[in-house]
What does this fold into?
Amino acid sequence: MIETSNPNLFTPVQLGSLRLEHRVIMAPLTRSRSIQPDSVPGDLMRTYYEQRASEGGLIISEATNISLTSRGWLGAPGLYSDEQVKGWQAITAAVKAKGGRMVAQLWHTGRSSHTAMTGGAQPVTASVNESYWKNPDHLVSIPGGWAESSPHRALTVAEIAEIVQDYRKAAERALDAGFEAVELHAANGYLMDQFLQDGSNHRTDQYGGSLENRFRFLSEVLNALISVCDSDRVAVRLGPGGTWNGISDSDPAALFSYVAEQLNQFDLAYLHLIEPRVGGSITTHPEKGTAAAQQLRPIFKGKLISAGGFEPETAETAIEEGLVDAVAFGRYFVSNPDLVHRIREHLPLSEYDRDTFYTFDARGYTDYPAYDAVLVA
It folds into this structure.
């Protein structure tokens, strides 16, 4: 047994098919460093993930687009071409060589997009909301800088079925790329969240109105993913109570309680929650604490991961109290490539530079030194 000031963080845990030796998980972090214009993971991304891999640890990939028309963020990688798969293969191999495990997070940005990113196709969503694309606060990253999102349109039922198949194909490519599981991104106001929440879903067909209908799209995608990966290699990420990307619901407590209850039938590897105290990469409501985990822990019967605003000490407490089974760290993994070692040994953590979160080169990406390297210098 490793002696540590955070003993619960450094006990093994089984997440579906994934056996982990510790519970410090690297959260999915959009960092904009894939090779453009084809969204191919390259050598810079391989170095970044390799630096952050740990023996028996889990890395959840940055949000990864399932198709050209799902894109909404310049520099985000994809899983819809052979070249992208080849790029990811180099990354997953490097992580495995250090004893780590890796999950692919699958992403469709929906209305949070621009025609410059979709090959000219109009962004799609559950229902049209003109106030969204006309809001200067809803910006997307495109060639040339940040821009307001393009006008979107509502998906037809036939098109929803096509996107379900895009997710299935992306899961197949994820396995080909060497990922051991997939995580469905259903949070932060992107397409899956746009169907779940009634602030963005005003449909009157089988995909709108009741909680059952709004959950239908997510359920269909999960069944498609499970047909490829088996349920113990499929996970979901939710953002209960979050407001990122202009998302909202008239009764979020009822909605996410229902979703968590329904997810029990899928026997997932885990459910990954974003705490509502964070919005994107910023802590906006610290007073909300671990509200999402507290709400859904009694409902969801499987393994629970929580992310958003955790410190090593608060993560340790959350696991000790049985609130979560593991904690995903984001910003600290940006500036501490050896975060697992630092937490285990109770070493000081390096500060991150927020100005380089979404830039396009090595600065603020692969140039943060490990603690031992700082001592040598």
About this structure: The longest strand covers residues 58-65. Residues 77 and 375 are 34 Å apart (CA to CA). The mean pLDDT is 94.
